[in-house]
């Protein structure tokens, strides 16, 4: 086999392997299904699939405390409550006792709800 043929074959094999790797990365760590699937699934295209169990108020409090710790703020979590529509809201309280921000989460999907503009 000539050198030129070997180079062409090696290039084809390398491109095929690279294509397989990029497809695996696009599918994500769970092969395109499971709780981390963002595209498609029960929620429809571009929607996050619902959680197996809805979020609880305790979990939302833990999420907010983690966000505060990640930012390095001296803030604390205030009142966490569930609304009638199933959304869970939690207050972030500053050192002066004032509400800095209220964050709302969709209990079914676990995602934060963006405030209306």
From TrEMBL:
Bias (Gly residues): 29-46
Residue ranges, annotated region (Disordered): 23-51
Endpoints of the signal sequence: 1-26
Keywords: Signal
UniProt protein name: Secreted protein
Species for this entry: Magnetospirillum gryphiswaldense (strain DSM 6361 / JCM 21280 / NBRC 15271 / MSR-1)
């Amino acid at each position: 086999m000539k050198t030129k043929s070997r180079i062409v074959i090696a290039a084809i094999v390398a491109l095929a392997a690279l294509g397989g790797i990029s497809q695996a990365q696009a599918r994500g760590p769970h092969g395109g299904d499971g709780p981390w699937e963002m595209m498609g699934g029960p929620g429809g295209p571009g929607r996050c699939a619902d959680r197996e169990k809805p979020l609880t108020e305790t979990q939302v409090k833990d999420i907010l405390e983690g966000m505060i710790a990640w930012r390095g703020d001296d803030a604390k979590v205030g009142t966490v409550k569930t609304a009638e529509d199933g959304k869970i809201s939690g207050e972030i309280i500053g050192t002066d006792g004032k509400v800095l921000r209220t964050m709302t989460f969709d209990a079914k999907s676990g995602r934060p709800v963006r405030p209306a503009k």
